[in-house]
Structure formats: C-alpha cells, structure tokens
Specification:
Blueprint lengths: L2 E5 L8 H14 L4 E5 L5 H5 L10 H7 L8 E2 L5 E4 L8 H5 L8 H6 L8 E5 L6 H9 L2 E6 L3 H20 L5 E10 L4 H13 L9 E2 L2 H8 L4 H4 L4 H16 L2
Parallel strand pairs: 1-5, 1-6, 2-4, 2-5, 6-7, 7-8
Antiparallel strand pairs: 3-4
Length: 253
C-alpha cells in the first residue's frame, strides 16, 4: 500500500517546499518509488526538482479531467523519483470547482489509478487552507508539518492542528499527523534551542527526532534547481534529509 504524505503549513517561509523536494529525493535514493505532486501554483517544487513548468503536463490538467495520465508524470534525474508538475493555471482550480459538490475529493480521485505504482506520494501544498490544501489533506494518509522556531509559527501551529482535525472529522477519517518537523534551527541560537525543548515537551509523541537546521548547503541547492543530494550526497544538508527519510521509512513503510 502506498503512503500519501502531505507536507503542509499555513505559514509561508517554513521550508515546506524545500522539504518536499529533498525528502522525495532522499526516498528515491533509498530506491523507493516516489512521486512528488506539486499542488502549489507557484511551482517551486517543480522548478526545484529540475523540471520546467509546463501547462500541458501539469496537475491542473489532471485535476480538471479527474485523472492523471502517464503523460502528466514527468521523469527527474533520479531513477526512482517522478513528479507531477504544477503550473500557474492551477490558480484557476478554485474557480473551476467553486460550488461543486465533492470538490474536496478531486485530487484523491485523480491519483486513484496511479497511486499503487508508487511507494510514496509526497504532496507539496500552498501556505494557506484553500481548496488545493484541502484536496491534498483529503487525499493523504498522513501529513508532516514543518515548523520554524518563532512565535508566529507556534501560533500558526494551533490553527494547523485544528484544520487537520477538521479535515479528519469531515472528509478523511484516515488522515494522521505523521509528525512536526523543526526546520531552520540554529544550534547556536539560544531561543531556537529553548523552543525546540518546549516543543519536544508539549508534542513529545508528535515530533520527528530529525531536524532540518539552518544550513548553507540546503540554501545553495535551491539556487541550482536541484535536490541537494544530486549536487553533493555527502553535504551536511543532504545528510539531514537522508536521516529524515530513514526515520520516515522506519515508522511508515
């Protein structure tokens, strides 16, 4: 059975897309058949995976037709990693489904025929609780919440958790919180370490042991439009994502 994992945060700047790209790549390196679904109209997960935006081969077309075809699944440089690209037209999705009954199942229906061809489907979402994010959470088995160590992120976390519970109660009883992932943590910044300690105290059973620190090798990889592991698998940033993938595999295989 495939694992469908939604990477979500209602606050921008949490590292959500960077995690989607590099976690997908790390799972592929572990030879898990992985599909990255770019559900954000900005298309950063697409570009960051080395794939150009293409409206004729995009998630928008798949969701309008409620079926993903082989033509819409694009190869990447990694043998085990494929992607369904985004495009700017994905913004039109909300207008297209507005008022339609069952709009929240559009993505779930679209991936139904192809999901079992993959071990993991990773969905990158917009930083808001819009129809695209709702569709992503309805389609998923579980979600990962990336979170930075600042007050606004802590405040937003309450809203995210309530939103996940709402989706679970109303649309998707199988939806689980796979974990909260601390991102952009500075080991030398006292406030970051205090928040990390507090988060582990409050959400002990929901925290990933892995963290994604502030790391220039991760930041640099986004400039080249490629997962960090393809540039240097031994880079410190790459090692952190490989550890995250290993932790995920140990819990949800």
């Amino acid at each position: 059975m495939s694992q469908i994992i939604c990477i979500t945060n209602l606050k921008g700047g949490s590292g959500k897309t960077t995690i989607s790209i590099n976690l997908s790549a790390s799972l592929a390196i572990a030879e898990k058949r992985t599909l990255l679904i770019d559900c954000d109209p900005k298309g950063n997960a697409t570009i960051g995976s080395g794939v150009p935006l293409n409206s004729s081969k995009s998630l928008y077309q798949a969701m309008i037709n409620k079926e993903i075809t082989e033509d819409q699944i694009v190869d990447t440089e990694l043998d085990y990693l494929k992607i369904i690209p985004s495009c700017f037209e994905l913004y039109k999705f909300e207008q297209y489904v507005s008022g339609q009954q069952g709009f929240e199942n559009t993505l779930s229906v679209s991936i139904d025929k192809i999901k079992d061809s993959f071990d993991y489907l990773i969905i990158d979402t917009p930083p808001s609780l819009n129809m695209l994010t709702i569709n992503s959470l309805v389609a998923a088995n579980g979600c990962i919440i990336p979170m930075t160590s600042d007050f606004f992120a802590l405040n937003t976390l309450k809203t995210i958790l309530h939103s996940i519970q709402f989706i679970k109660n109303k649309y998707n009883p199988n939806l689980e919180l796979y974990g909260i992932l601390l991102t952009m943590i500075s080991r030398s910044f006292e406030n970051d370490n205090l928040i990390k300690t507090e988060m582990n105290r409050i959400f002990k059973n929901s925290m990933f042991e892995s963290i994604i620190p502030l790391d220039m090798t991760i930041k640099d990889s986004t400039l080249y439009g490629t997962p960090i592991a393809l540039r240097d698998i031994h880079a410190s940033g790459s090692v952190h994502f490989l550890r995250l993938a290993e932790e995920l595999l140990s819990k949800y295989y």
